[in-house]
Automatic annotation (TrEMBL):
<dbReference type="InterPro" id="IPR006016">
    <property type="entry name" value="UspA"/>
</dbReference>
<feature type="domain" description="UspA">
    <location>
        <begin position="6"/>
        <end position="147"/>
    </location>
</feature>
<dbReference type="Pfam" id="PF00582">
    <property type="entry name" value="Usp"/>
</dbReference>
<comment type="similarity">
    <text>Belongs to the universal stress protein A family.</text>
</comment>
<dbReference type="InterPro" id="IPR014729">
    <property type="entry name" value="Rossmann-like_a/b/a_fold"/>
</dbReference>
<dbReference type="InterPro" id="IPR006015">
    <property type="entry name" value="Universal_stress_UspA"/>
</dbReference>
<protein>
    <submittedName>
        <fullName>Universal stress protein</fullName>
    </submittedName>
</protein>
<feature type="domain" description="UspA">
    <location>
        <begin position="159"/>
        <end position="283"/>
    </location>
</feature>
Amino acid sequence: MVGSRQAVLVEVSDRPLGEHAVRWAADEAALRSLPLRLLYVQAGAAITLPDAEPESRAHTWATHIHARGETLLREARDQALRHHPGLEIDTELASGRPPRVLREAARSASLVVLPTPRHAVADSLFTPRDEADALTGHPACPVVLVREPLPGVPDDAPVAVGADGSPSARPAVDLAFEEASLRGVGLVAILVRTPRDAGRTDALAEARADLSESLAAHRERYPGVAVRQDVLVGDPAAMLASASRHARCLVVGTRRRSGLREALVASTSRSLIHGTDCPLIIAPAPSAP
C-alpha cells in the first residue's frame, strides 16, 4: 500500500483508451513525486463469493472476474513502470457501481484520471443519481478525462485554459500554469465573449486588459512558462473545443454555488466533456470563503 501521501488515482479499463489514461496518470505521479494508485472496478458483480460452493457457477464466475481484474491491474502496473521505473504503485481490485466506488476513492486522491468516453461515469463521479450514492461535499481534487490523442499534435503542445476572470476560473488557471510548468510547455489562456457582449464599444479591448490583469500574478510565479492570450468571440463551448484540437490538454473550472452537476451538465461543460479533442482537466471549485 502507498503511504500517507495522496496518490494520483486512475481507473484501469479493458478498453484501448485505458492505456492512455494509465500513461497520463503515471506521468503526473512522476512529475509530482506522488504515488500512483491503479483501481479496477468490476461493475455489478462480487469479486469474491465466500459462501458459494467451489464447484458452483457463481464461484467459477467470481474466480474468472478476479483473475481478469488482476491481469488488467498487473498489465497497467507494468506499463507504468516501463515509463517510470521505481514509481511507487498501489493496485486495488474492487466491485460495485463504478461511479460510487470512484467517488469514494476520490476522497483520498490528489488527482483522478478517467479514460473516456465513459461520460456516465464521469458525470456521476461529481453528483449522485440517487440517495444511496449520495456524496457529501464536492471532490476536492482535479479530475482528468483522457481520450486518445489526435495525430499530429506535438509533444510540446501548450496547455489551454478557460480564463474568464471569475472566481471559479482561478483554480483552473492555477492548475493550468502548474501543469504547463511541470510539462515544460507553454500556456494559452482563452477568454470567450459572446457576440452580444463583444458588440459593446471597446468590449474586446476591455476583455484583453482584464485577461492580462488576471494572469499577472501567475506570470510572475511561473516566469518560465510562455503565455499566449486569446480573446475570442462566439459560443464558449465551441471556441474552447476548437482550441483543444491543438492543445496538450484543456483546463476548465467548476462553480461551487450551483453544484458540480449543474456545472458539468450545463451546455458549455457538457459540450466540452463530449467534444474536446484532448484530455479535459476539471479543476475543483474554489474553497468557500
